[in-house]
TrEMBL record:
Comp. bias regions, Polar residues: 40-49
Superkingdom per UniProt: Eukaryota
Annotated stretches, region: Disordered: 1-76
Segments of skewed composition (Acidic residues): 55-70
Matching Gene3D superfamilies: S-adenosyl-L-methionine-dependent methyltransferases (2.20.25.110), Vaccinia Virus protein VP39 (3.40.50.150)
UniProt lineage: Eukaryota, Viridiplantae, Streptophyta, Embryophyta, Tracheophyta
InterPro entries (alphabetical): SAM-dependent_MTases_sf
Name used for this protein in its record: S-adenosyl-L-methionine-dependent methyltransferase superfamily protein
Bias (Basic residues) ranges: 1-23
Length: 400
């Protein structure tokens, strides 16, 4: 799942995304990776085992490599989706939701948070989990990547309750122009039931997604934009897995935060994003987490200290299939600092900003951790000051 800037930049990057996804090439594995365990910083994904290695390829396009065993293996065609692999090795939606609820209670309170907007949602796994947690809940997901959104509909939405699709609105578009984002069609046969009426900012019940379509098979005569819908005012807007790093300029970050604030309920709401950092995060690094059927590899290219930019690539090595899904995801990121984010949230109009940080294990310590290791056991703490470390993760909460 990828990223971007504004206008021209977005256009260009979106094209790049499609190029990335477009073609998977099968090449011999003579360039078999050699892994050199080194002391690596552990910041990111809070979820990785470390290893280091030589640069794999100049070509950052998505590709599948196979090894010599692959021809003999009947499972070679059985390659799991990169989205499934990502969800299994990167995301922890239950943990995120429990913190979202805690933050809402602390900084808003007085009601149960029901309406979530997941910006940069990718396959909207968090939204799906949110809907599962309470039948009154609704979710709005927004992302530039139509392939990820389609995959969500095929694979995540149908795992919710039967009414799941009616409580989830997925929009394809840019977080910098959310109202221009277009609704993604659900290819379901049932009529659209009413979404639970919600208080919007004016205290008026929100309309169903499209009341004119109730009782009839879903057919969308034309493209529908987010601005065409009266969505419930959101209690929480979130941007996870460091997605705000996809925005490269201060102007973009402030604009995005203004849109997030605008989506929040005037009776109170929060914006929550995450960020990583630490001394180990500002250099090249390669981290690896091993799961029973595959290995997830996080690769951070060199870190430019002037622009604070880096390129992240995610690779998956499939054990049974003897294949490597290289550059399955690739991002150009600006690694924002905590005070920069705070300033931008305040400039956008948020009333207060809070940092919840957890120390991550030093890279040396997690060199050979399997799976998620024990990084998820460490709790985030509300802090006003935090001494620099090898690696940390943060939730940043903006209170509307
Ligand atoms: C790092 S992934 C995060 C996906 C998901 N939120 C998660 O928690 O794993 C970043 C996502 O942001 C999307 N994205 C990047 N720039 C965007 C933009 N300007 N507007 C909307 N989506 C964007 C990408 O398509 C990608 O799905």
């Amino acid at each position: 799942m990828g990223k971007h800037g504004k206008k021209q930049k977005h256009k260009h990057q979106h094209q790049h995304q499609h190029q990335r996804r477009g073609r998977a090439s099968y090449i011999s594995e003579e360039e078999q990776e050699q892994e050199y365990p080194v002391s690596l910083p552990s910041s990111l994904a809070s979820k990785l085992t470390l290893s280091d290695k030589e640069n794999e390829s100049e070509d950052e396009g998505e590709k599948i490599e196979e090894d010599d065993e692959s021809d003999k293996n009947p499972l070679t065609s059985d390659i799991p989706s990169k989205f499934l692999l990502y969800q299994q090795s990167v995301q922890s939606p239950k943990g995120d939701i429990s913190y979202l609820q805690k933050f809402f209670l602390m900084y808003v309170g007085g009601r149960v948070p029901l309406h979530l907007q997941e910006d940069f949602c990718g396959t909207a796994l968090l939204s799906a989990e949110w809907l599962c947690s309470d039948p009154r809940r609704t979710a709005v997901g927004l992302d530039l990547d139509i392939e990820a959104l389609d995959w969500c509909i095929e694979n995540n939405v149908n795992k919710i309750r039967a009414d799941g699709y009616s409580r989830l609105s997925l929009f394809h578009g840019n977080v910098l122009q959310p109202l221009e984002a277009t609704l993604v069609k659900f290819e379901c046969q049932d009529p659209i039931p009413d979404i639970t009426p919600k208080d919007n900012e004016d205290g008026i019940d929100a309309l169903p997604l499209d009341s004119t379509l109730q009782g009839s098979p879903i057919t969308f005569p034309k493209v529908k934009f987010m601005k065409d819908y009266q969505l419930p005012a959101r209690d929480i807007v979130c941007a996870f897995n460091y997605s705000c790093c996809c925005l490269h300029t201060r102007q973009e970050l402030v604009l995005y935060f203004k849109h997030a604030l605008n989506a929040l309920n005037r009776k109170g709401g929060i914006f929550v994003m995450d960020l990583y950092g630490g001394t180990s995060s500002e250099c090249e690094l390669r981290l690896q987490r091993r799961f029973p059927n595959f290995t997830y590899v996080w690769e951070q290219a060199g870190f430019d200290i002037i622009q604070r930019k880096t390129r992240i690539s995610l690779h998956f090595n499939l054990t049974k299939q003897h294949k490597k899904l290289r550059h399955a995801f690739s991002y150009s990121w600006r690694l924002w600092s905590l005070p920069e984010v705070k300033d931008c949230l305040e400039d956008a109009g948020f009333r207060s900003v809070h940092f919840w940080i957890r120390r991550m294990p030093d890279s040396e310590e997690i060199r050979s951790v399997e799976g998620f290791g024990d990084s998820r056991d460490t709790k985030y703490e509300d802090v006003a000051s935090f001494q620099q470390r090898d690696s940390w993760n943060a939730y940043i909460v903006g209170v509307a």
